[in-house]
Design a protein that fits this description.
The protein is an alpha/beta fold. It has one domain (about 60-235). Helix content is about 35%, strand content about 15%. The chain has helices at about 5-30, 35-50, 70-75, 80-95, 115-125, 130-140, 140-150, and strands spanning about 100, 155-160, 170, 180, 190, 195, 205-210, 215, 220-225, 230, 235. Strands 1, 2, 3, 6 and 7 form a five-stranded mixed β-sheet that branches. Strands 4-11-10-5 form a four-stranded mixed β-sheet, with no helix packed on it. The chain has a two-stranded antiparallel sheet with strand order 8-9. Helix 4 (about 80-95) packs parallel to helix 7 (about 140-150).
């Protein structure tokens, strides 16, 4: 017949169990969770998503992807701003889209004049004065054409925050949603610089949203993206539309 545990043995077992529990809780309290526990939590999170997220996609959202077929048809990347202007005009005028967001940067000027349009204009002018040609070149400026397509349309341009010691500053990220005093203590990524679109493209109605790499977890899976970032004591959103 098996004998039961004595009171002293039960106390030892209870003490060991309590000690192991404390050893598990201390890293959690110090925000230093064991890798095994983090992996277990990540797997549970993935399981919940697979079980409860809907598989169907929202038909109102369309991704205009720059894939191999697009490159074969339109030519190598980067495409000229005149091409992007034509794309915007088609999206709004022909397809009636509600809003367009660019997951790319326009931090440098486009110096490539659309030569086909220029050649057509030259062919219609047997004798062209220098000043008239200069005016035509200016009217065909790709950034000007792109800015005209952006004018008074719901478009969100992308920009990136710089976290390096270089403290890059190109363009303006737009209006913040809050100041440091309003969101003090909230743990958000902090940037030292910003690279945004050219001022010439910041037209009336255009908004900005930052493009940021997702935060990779210990198992190499992306599960989180920052919705806010702090820059010069101001908080900026990943996308902003009034």
């Amino acid at each position: 017949m098996m004998k039961g545990f004595s009171f002293g043995q039960r106390m030892v077992r209870s003490g060991l169990g309590l000690l192991l529990t404390l050893l598990m809780l201390v890293p959690l309290i110090q925000d230093n969770r064991p890798v095994l526990l983090e992996r277990f939590e990540s797997d549970l999170y993935d399981l919940r998503l697979r079980q409860f997220l809907a598989d169907d996609q929202d038909p109102r959202i369309v991704i205009v992807d720059i894939d191999e077929a697009s490159l074969a048809e339109q030519g190598r990347w980067p495409w000229g701003r005149a091409t992007l202007a034509n794309m915007l005009n088609n999206l709004f005028d022909e397809y009636g889209v509600a809003i367009v967001g660019f997951d790319m940067l326009f931090a440098e000027a486009d110096r490539n004049v659309p030569m086909e349009a220029l050649q057509q204009w030259l062919d219609s002018r047997p004798a062209t004065a220098g000043s008239e040609l200069s005016e035509q070149l200016d009217s065909l400026n790709p950034d000007r054409l792109f800015a005209a397509a952006l004018e008074e349309r719901p478009v969100v341009l992308g920009y990136v925050f710089d976290r390096s010691a270089q403290q890059l500053k190109v363009g303006d990220p737009g209006s913040p949603v809050a100041g440091a005093e309003e969101l003090a203590g909230i743990p958000v990524p902090r940037a030292s610089g910003v690279v945004a679109s050219l001022d010439a493209l910041q037209t009336e109605g255009t908004r900005n949203g930052f493009i940021d790499n997702p935060r990779v977890d210990a198992d190499g899976v992306y599960r989180r993206v920052p919705l806010l970032q702090e820059y010069q004591s101001q908080y900026y959103p990943s996308s902003h539309w009034p």
